[in-house]
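Internal tracking record. Fields below are filled automatically when a chain is submitted to the structure queue. Please do not edit lines marked as system-generated. If the sequence contains nonstandard residues, flag them in the REMARKS field before resubmitting.
Queue: standard
Priority: normal
Entity type: single polypeptide chain
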Amino acid sequence: MMREAGPLRIIATAALLFIALLMARFSWDMRFVNEIERVLFDIRATYAMEQVPPDERIAIIFYDENTLFNTGVRSPLDREILAKALVALDGMGARAIGVDILIDQPTENDALLAETLRAMETPTYLPVVLSAFNPDEIQPAQEDFMNEFFARVDTEAIERASVYLRADEDNVARSWPPQPEGLPPLMAHRLAPGHDAFRRYDGSVAYRSQLYQNDPIFLKLPIDMIAEMGADPLAVELIAPQIEGRFVLVGTDLADRDRFMTPFTRVNGTGTIPGVEIHAHLLAQMLDGVMFNPMTPAMLWPLAILVVLLGALTSLSDLRLWKLGILIIVQAGFVLVMPFAFHNWGMDTQTLPVFGWVAGWVIAFSAVGAAARSVGAEKRQFVTGALGKYLPGDVARQLLNDPDRLALHGEKRVIYAMFTDLQGFTKLSHSIAPEMVATLLNKYLDMLSKAVLDHGGTLDKFVGDAIVAFWGAPISRPDDKERAAQCAVAAYKIGEQFREETPEGVPPIGETRVGLHCGEAIVGNFGGQNRMQYTALGDAMNTAARLESANKQTGSTILVSKQATEGVETIAFRPLGRVTLSGRSTPVEVYEPVLEITEGSGEKLHDLWRRFDEGDTTALAEIDTLAQDNPDDEALRQMAERLHETEPGGSYVLQGK
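SYSTEM-GENERATED OUTPUT FOLLOWS
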């Protein structure tokens, strides 16, 4: 193959394989593609998220919209209520307090807050955000004020902590924030010192979800409630057990500030969570000692090479289609399962290029496959041309892909068979020029053929102006019943459209009649050694043909057996009684789709027919009345006439074809 491919094709294929390798290794670094990788990571992280009961180590005290309404202060946040809350928390025995509220501009309550902080006995940490790291959010003047305020409250119990959080471009906080020189330790490190390994950790956040729907992971209390309780010894006694010994984070839960998405909230569409809650997750992860191991280049390169090789070799494999499909499914399963397995094994899959694997595999598969196909194009064209002398081109191509189809055998399948006929076209063809007959017939058959193919049907044959089609073979679909029913209605409507578009000088053309039945048939290639056709034979086809013909005797245009209506939800049907078709011995309960002209009788006729068939002969008079009320409904009128000659539970024998 290498010799037949030629140097240019080899160079082009090698270049595409190199691109595939880069994609399979570096997709996290590629613009637009990395957004897909993030979504896939979020799905993995959400799936692997540990469900936990309430964490009794951490509590969150927050300002919310009710707090702002009650205090009448929005920005900066009211510091008097913060001071009162800190006094209460100090008296309740909190283990440590982390404040995630920037004190970056003066207010009238600064003196009260400073006095409160200087009196704190509980280790308390004030937030620091530097303009060097957040130039868009913090101005030098704000940074100067923070420094000045801290100098006023600098005691043994008061320290500063970084509250910087890192979010990706899509505002999803997936990773631990950087901890560069020049910033004090992160709030989690300040609250619980001694976890030195996390000072260097910048991997994924191990978010957790609540085990029970009504039990949040972290205790959350509004700050105004804590502030008010601080002045009531009895209230303090009640709430203190929930605060004592816990790490307490004080922050905001406001819609317009300091909010981030997480992998969990993004996947589940639950919006954002406040930054203070992310600090709580970081603290819990550090306390639990959960650190994901990074996926190193020594791991990512072999995986990328493996994926590209699999794509290339799969394309070259000379396997039957079903075996190739199984091989691709197995490889797809590997791509889908392994990232979740890595995540569950404690690996940080945030840099795992899952979409890159898929894209690299597809590029390699396509590049090598294109080269292989181009090499054999002339041979394939020759073979196809030779077969085409005996078979239609599409069948020849199928046989080339699957030679087993040459065997003259059939298989029993349940199919939906449809027959159509254009009323009066044979007579019409004798009254107009042959050229016009060919033009009209080709246009009509083309419109009907397109409808069959658009609805996923198999075109069996043309018989003059009639079309024979079926669903359920060679491929069976769960919605074949819907497709077949919809196509039957579409065929009738196409016939009406065709009639309206008849050229001037052509006599009126009749309606398109349709018969549809569901049953067993033998489907396969039938013919001789020199000519064959993929078709269906058996009772289902015969019944469908007779249903089409029976339209002439029932006054209908679309006649459908009960078997073909079962399970159909997109098309409404009404009953037309039970008949014995010409040449058949088994009665068939027949229905027709409810179209515009029959909408008024569809639902009511179901009940009347059921009552009559179960022995309630009074229903027949109501059917007569219904027919009289709908004089344009020929099918309803003829049904009423047939029922007068039919016993309940019996059938009307149709005569002739």
